[in-house]
Fold:
Amino acid sequence: MRVAVVGATGNVGTAVLTAVNERPEVSSVLGIARRMPDQDAEPYAQADWASIDIGAAVKAPEAIAHLTKAFADVDAVIHLAWLIQPNSKRDLLHRVNVEGTRNVARAAAAAGVDTLVVASSVGAYSPSPGLEVRDESWETGGISTSHYSVDKAAQERVLDEFEAEHPEVTVTRLRPALIFSAAAASEIQRYFLGSWMPVQALKAGRPPLLPLPQGLRIQAVHADDMGAAYAAAAVAGVKGAFNICADDVLGVQDLADIVGDGRKVRPVELPPSMVRTAMSAGHLTGLVAADPGWLDMGMNVPVMDNARAKAELGWKPTRTAADAVAELLGGMIEGTGADSVPMRPRDADGGSLPVSAVPGGADAGEGASAGKGSPRISEDVDRDLLNLYISDHLTGATAGMSRIERMAEANVDTPVFAELSMLAHEIRNERRFLEQLLEDLGFKQLPHRQAAAWVGEKAARLKNNGRLVKRSPMTLVLEAELMRSAVIGKKGVWETLRDNAQLLGLDKQVFADLVDTVDRQVAVLDQVHAYARRRAFRTDLETFTPQD
Structure:
């Protein structure tokens, strides 16, 4: 079999790639995503890859055409792609999640695919608070105050229509519980908690009290078990819906015990309305990434029965829900991730960059991080000037990273999003590399300068570029111009460090390679600018809606 995985770089997609490659029936895998992963890293190295937009920035006919071509020799499609953020862009979320599912299904039928396995969710179910267990026959009307749940229920209707129109295609719907793993920790924290939540503080100790909404109960499944369920469904070719979850159901005391990790933590049950009010305020102020609809869904979805998946797919969980939650929490504390843009760790370690520019790097043993007086730096070098020079470039990199990340987030519904997002990933890694370089040379950072650069970049966003209540198409032009100048300027620091590498005891080739990346990064920004400038002042060309 050849299996295509649409949305193959996220939490579930990464696990699915591993699982399908372990199935003897599967001979090859095609990964599809807008943003490509590190294709030299596992499990991404085991797949062929195609960058295809299923509907965010292209109209349906184009998306279907690209997908149909990709599915030409595919036996089963596993459709996982789902946009979680931004919450405020409901049209975009519906277009990608609901209409994108329709596009994938139609392309599968057009290409003659035998089996279509789709990621539905426990969130598709109608309300059933309490502990009564429901099987797959429970109504899929969704939770009306959760946009995720509403779209999952709408996706189910799309699949109903598709099955009626194409009985020749085996349609399998998996309805999983919460899907957790250590590798997904940083992604889940960004999507649901946000960067302000001090989860990593749990490394120093555990709180004596844990506030939780009264009556909360959670089902979960480990991402590896979830990947195995998708792989089993792709091979089995069995029609219908399957609940996927571990066997245990977690209550507030169970969650407190997991957070305590052997230490006494007492749960404090709060009225759900109080928690919802606090969550709403946190979301409005940007302190919490998730909106209160996620709480509404969590409190009202049913407890699922997983018997059918065990009986008909030959699947069973190998880890408990408690195991999955504990692993996720540990991953959040450590900031773990994987080698794709959505799954990136909390603190980038340089990615494809070397860990250190000092010969031997982190493996050099004692003295790898050279202190003052280290023989690695020539006596002819003015250390104070060198420290100030690298620190100033780190300050510029801080502002540049903030700007390029904002550009990517703001333009998720344009054809240049994937390029911007991957460029942001590179620039984030380069900034981390400069931090590591200062440490290796025994220099101090100047955090007040970096903080000022961060604040200055945020203040620059207040310029409205002629539009008060919606995005100005001119903004992308101006930001592309600013970033292009910054990237060209960045070439100077790499050239300077390359030409002084011997004096500094550094690896010259590291900086020569970084000089070479600048031209490619500038070419990406040229492409972004070309797209934006043709639309900057036009009334007959759209910038932020699907393009023909």
Observations:
- The mean pLDDT is 89.
- The longest strand covers residues 170-176.
- Residues 383-410 form the longest helix (28 residues).
